[in-house]
Amino acid sequence: MILELEQLSHRYGTELAVDDVSFGLESGELVALLGPSGCGKTTIVQAIAGHVRPTTGRVVLRGEDVTDTPPETRRVGIVFQQPTLYPHMTVSENVAYGLNARDIEPARRDELVADYLELVDLHDQRTAAPSELSGGQQRRVELARALAPQPDVLVLDEPLSALDRTLREQLRDEIARIQRETGVTTLFVTHDQEEAMALADRLVVMNDGQVAGVGQPRTLYESPPTPFVASFLGRSNTLAATVVDQHPLTIALGTHEIRLDNTARELSAGTPVTCHIRPKDLSLRHSATPGTTPSLPCEVVHIADIGRRYDVTVQSITGDELVVEQSEPPNETGETLWVEFPPDSIQLFGPDTC
Ligand code: ATP
To answer: Would the CATH topology of 3-231 be identical to that of 235-349?
Structure first.
């Protein structure tokens, strides 16, 4: 591991902002630290950078405990949420600034500045002032400045949140390219699940100061360990149900029973459970499909045409509203249809998960 956080906790006064967080980054990995506003992401970044001394726990870089090491001697490159370029310096001078603290010969320093400006495709703007650059170009200068000292770890703290959507997507792809080319171990901090899933080899999902799930994006999306991860990583329909039989696991949604053959969970009869189902996994039919695929009668409440698909809201006979992604729309609202549930796409959570 290049970077390890070991049982990190941090209090601001009585507020527990980070609660026993442990995870690590392998060499060359891009890990996204993902969670809603206020879940403790920036506090973790500050602890890695050395600007916050965690109340308990350790920060370990390349096997060395750096919890008490001053920020300037840690080999961590950081791009913060807000731009931090010096307005009175040129682009080159800003990038060189990150190297001044290191004992580097001037010729080598100039070479590194040129190389990293080339990497972020800003060599032609090297004599410009930051104010002459677009928001996206300024972020790229900051990336070059963070990378030029060749840090052990690059930490990007919500670097795209101040940019508009198109620019955000362009720069996201640019960051992916730069990370691939340099192979720098990277922690990308964001509250945007799409951004995190598009970029990361692995996700660390946080909720309320704690780690709610760690894993590859697809695995966490398809098999979320908690209802929070299920809801945070994309839209999820939620249905309350009750276990009616343990072997094979059968649940009741209202008066309708569904058999979940693929579920290995040990949940005894009578246990209340929550089912999460992605809109893409549901489908609408004009009649119940004969065979084993469970379905419920429903009424179409709303049809949203969002271009490449239709998001159809239906009310099932259980009273629950569900969103169904369809490539073809139903005829009209008020129409009575059947909503079909492939049993292996249902994520089931018992009362002990949160
Ligand atoms: P955001 O995306 O909004 O920055 P975050 O996930 O980065 O949120 P933090 O900024 O680490 O979360 O904040 C975690 C919790 O600690 C929040 O409840 C916040 O109000 C609190 N907090 C953060 N900094 C301080 C501080 N300097 N003093 C007191 N409380 C703080």
So the answer is: no
Given a cut of 70, whether residue 265 has pLDDT beyond it is no
Q: Which residue has a Cα nearest atom 21 of ligand 1? A: 17
Report helix, strand or coil for 112: helix
Which range among 142-146, 166-170, 266-270 has the greatest average pLDDT? 142-146
Q: What tokens were used for 102?
A: 């290191």
The average pLDDT across 105-125 equals 93
Ligand 1 mutation pick, 12, 18, 82, max ligand atoms within 8 A of CB: 12
pLDDT score, position 264: 58
> What is the C-alpha separation between 185 and 88, in angstroms, rounded?
31
Report which protein residue has its CA nearest ligand 1's atom 14. 40
Q: What residue segments make up the domains of the chain, in order of their start? A: 3-231, 235-349
Taking CB atoms and a 6 Å cutoff, what residues make up the pocket around ligand 1? 12, 15, 17, 35, 37-43, 191
Cα 103 to Cα 149, 246, 269, distances in angstroms: 10, 67, 68
- The residue whose CA is least distant from atom 5 of ligand 1 is 38
Nearest CA, atom 11, ligand 1: 40
3-231 CATH fold = Rossmann fold (3.40.50)
- Those residues with Cβ within 8 angstroms of residue 261's Cβ, 6 or more apart along the chain or in another chain: 248, 249, 343, 344
Total-model pTM: 0.89
Q: What is the DSSP string of 127-183?
A: TS-GGGS-HHHHHHHHHHHHHTT--SEEEEESTTTTS-HHHHHHHHHHHHHHHHHH-
Q: DSSP letters along 41-73, please?
A: HHHHHHHHHTSS--SEEEEEETTEE-TTS-GGG
User: Ligand 1 mean position to 287 CA, how many Å?
Assistant: 51
Class (C level, CATH) for 235-349: mainly beta
